[in-house]
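Hi support team,

I'm filing this because I wasn't sure whether my run with DQA finished correctly. The job status page said complete, but I'd like someone to confirm that the output block is well-formed before I use it downstream. Pasting the exact inputs I used:
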Amino acid sequence: MKHILVINGPNLNLLGTREVDIYGKITLAKINEMVKEKARELNCQVRIKQSNSEGEIVSFISEARNWADALIINPAAYTHTSIAIRDAILAVGIPVIEVHLSNIYKRESFRQKSLIVGVCLGQITGFGPEGYILALEAVVNVLEER
Ligand code: DQA
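And here is everything the job wrote out:
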């Protein structure tokens, strides 16, 4: 059975109340339930983590090598700033999909650049919570083809 780690970055713990016009009313707990349900359907195991701290996210990624076959990450604001998260992804060497709820290319210019996507298989941006489900389907397909 394939193991997928899902990491959510800063302020995503506030989903449901945070900038609802952009991110919607759905909570992270609800998104996590959807992801777990999809994982059962796809017969894979997921672990889901959230942190507001860059260093902790780096540690989650490096610890992933002990368990995960692939990683799905919404690095939130660190997408646009974190060389440390980029380097951690390169070091761990497993397939990674970057997810964003909003379409970062339709937003402020500082959000239109991801330091992370260049070390990922790809990016899913703008589909709301559905993006996590699409990422899970995609990554499971990729792992099956390997
Ligand atoms: C986000 C987009 C980021 O620019 C922002 O800082 C977030 C959420 C998204 O999911 O749309 O916190 O990653």
